[in-house]
Amino acid sequence: MRSLLLTFAQHLNLSETQLEEMLSQPLTEVLTLPGLQQELNSLDTNLLKKTLPTAGGVLAKELPPFYNWLKNELGVKRVPDSPNHTTTWVIGFLHNQESLTHLVELHRPVPRLALEASIPRLVGIFEGVEDTQVRQEWQKAIAALCLVLIVAAREQDRVAVAV
Fold it and tell me: Which of 41, 102, 143, 153 is a Cys-bridge partner for 112, taking CB atoms 3.0 to 4.6 Å apart?
């Protein structure tokens, strides 16, 4: 949990206190919070779109071992068979063709603990990008999208426990 909060705090302009509060709220409320909206709106989508080939190369190289780790170490059952899934989704999101709610639905089957354990590693796959601005923007984008996933997964767990 600590690693997860540190990852979010490092890449998003949110304090650990703000993050903990967000993680305890329903997804519908978090999606309307000014803090999250500010993070999403502050993404340099022009830079992200311009550097999609760079990100695509990183994802093509780094996602297969990441997916193997998810499957073999964390026991995630449904893992994409290629990096195309993630790359296509990110491209769609940047071009306003994919929504955060669709991202959440795609990841509902992933157990919350596996999701939480994987995010620091997923954000870290961009560490090898030499251009600091490009690296930081991609890490920020992935962290912001993953924050939404964790909020949804925690909400799902709370609902399951309440039933």
Answer: 153
At 97, list the tokens: 């063709």
Q: Residue 112: which of 64, 74, 85 has the closest Cα?
A: 74
Between CA 35 and CA 82 the distance in angstroms is 33
For residue 78, is it left (φ>0), alpha (ψ between -120 and 50) or beta? beta
User: Rounded CA gap, 46 and 42, in Å?
Assistant: 11
Angle, alpha carbons 43-63-72 (nearest 5°): 130
pLDDT tens-digit readout, 72-107? 999 998 888 777 777 777 778 777 767 888 889 988
- Per-residue confidence (pLDDT) for residue 91, from 0 to 100: 76
Does the global pTM surpass 0.85? yes
CA dihedral 45, 50, 55, 56 (to 10 degrees): 120
| Whole-angstrom distance, CA of residue 10 vs CA of residue 103 | 23
